[in-house]
Structure prediction request, 158 residues.
Amino acid sequence: MRIDELTAELTAERATFGDVVAGIAGASLTTPGLIGQWSAREVIAHLGYWAGRATEAIHEVELGLAAEEDEVEEAGVDAINETVARVARETDVATVRRREEASYEALLERLRTLDPALLSTVLPDGSTLEETIREDGALHYREHADELRAALAGGAHA
Prediction:
């Protein structure tokens, strides 16, 4: 994909996610059990964290640090996700939304200035930078929008 395609995909998938979240009643945003044990607030925080990780991956590649050990591999995805969810549970929805938006905006900005030749850089986990950007960005927003849509269709938190 080209940079403009990556940014367009990310923008579209985040907008779709936002539309799905808009269908959740205010108080229900913090009710556990929407997706697994998580509330919508925790899902929003989760997406913000991973968008931030994609931004960090871009930065690391630009600095030539892609060959170093990845902190996600060391800490473990499940442990990171639980920490993000715990922090989200202790944070008001407005703050969680602002943090996610800041992560998304930072990722878009880094994408817009990224040298396209770097997209094929292989990261420590064996994926390319492009794959990581899509997985932690657009595809991640799509995945959780689909899950939320399914939960809402089942009558959860609408």
Notes: The first helix runs from residue 3 to 22. Residues 60 and 83 are 23 Å apart (CA to CA). The mean pLDDT is 92. The chain is about 65% helix and 0% strand.
